Amino acid sequence: MAKVKTKWVCQNCGYETAKYIGRCPDCGEWGTLTEEVEIKQTKSAINTVFDDNPVCLINEIEITDNIKLPTGFEEFDRVLGGGLVQGSLVLLAGDPGIGKSTLILQTAGNICAQGKKLLYVCAEESGSQVKLRAKRLNVNSDNLYVYSQTNLEAVINQIDYIKPEILVIDSIQSIYTSNITSSSGSVSQIRECTNALMDIAKNKNITVVVIGHVTKEGNIAGPKVLEHMVDTVIYFEGDKYKSQRLLRSIKNRFGSTNEIGVFNMADNGLNEVTNPSELFMKERTDNATPGSVIIATNEGTRALLVEVQALVGATSYPSPRRVSTGIEYNRLLQIIAVLEKRIGLNLSKHDVYVNVIGGIEIDEPAADLGIALAIATCYRDVVVDGNCVIIGEISLSGEIRNVSNLEKRIYEAQKLGFKKAIIPKLSKKLSNEFDIEIIQVPRLMDAITACVSKRNN
Ligand code: TYD
Ligand code: MG
To answer: What pLDDT shows up at residue 234?
Structure first.
């Protein structure tokens, strides 16, 4: 019998080599190469995709509008850039148990209610498990086909038979193609299956939604391979022990990647949160506490109010700890440096922990001033007024810099009943009138004077 030819494939990045090596030369990870049987592939899916596309001049190409199918969730549509684009491949990724299947089943119900035919391939669950969940979520339609199957070829047969307009694969890690012998979930299986699904999306003009689990390192298995291939990558995130869930797109060939969608997980499934600021501040008590500050951050087209908390305490470590959740670590170090130099806080013997409430990740500098005030008030055991919102970027010299979409942020604070906004000193007047008190501060020290007071209790 002829010897079976094998190759070694990096499970992190898909790098292939004939011999075993401990460290992947491509991504630098250790111990990620596994042996897989090399199969001579019959006609690869990817070779056939563009066969009948003629070469043409750019001037001769007609622009066709993408047909966008609403998902029935405004929050989901916003993240997708208006809806699911016909003939596109969307990857919905997230931790196991976060609610991906729930979201997609509810979305499937909404889409089927518009008279579209949808095939839901549940490779992880049996049909009756899906039915049970659908019953709980009140999803019920004559256009929704459920297929409990892990073999991709069988799925493709059913597509030809049922002719759905939307195909959902739950999940890409549990589906396999018989073309390759490696087990499902391996990089080569994922790559080959996604190739075939891309082929289906483009050639048959079927919208394909693929669910992918994120591994504990925070990557989708075979992450880079997958993200390159699909049109849209959406992450579904949140704290599993809390009910808030965020949808965030990190790649979108049809829309912006700044938008987030907010959901709340309840007994009857996921509910949209149209006013996320209210949700993020739900657990806040009326009493102002040292180290707690409300900031106005900007996510895509809307402003969001979120609470930032800091804890500062004497350290028992040789070098003090700096821990940040929801903001970038280096940003925190920079803010601490400015507080030490410009305000004179001596934090060199104190641990500093900063946490953004609600599982939100803030990557814009407009949160700087809020974070600085949270740290400073906790250190001095004073409070920022409870009805005050803080907006502003801090420069290394301790000056407060202007931020984008300032008026939208102030408007959000006013809408939620805040009475005061601390904002950067502006060179010109605000174009809108606001009902809340607006205090412009040129420097960090002025912000502290404007809104910090002794605690009452
Ligand atoms: P699921 O969609 O199965 O997660 P994933 O597909 O991402 O692995 O959701 C699992 C969790 O969601 C489970 O812990 C229970 C919770 N859940 C609710 O709170 N309410 C509901 O109506 C449903 C269907 C699930
Ligand atoms: Mg699931």
So the answer is: 92
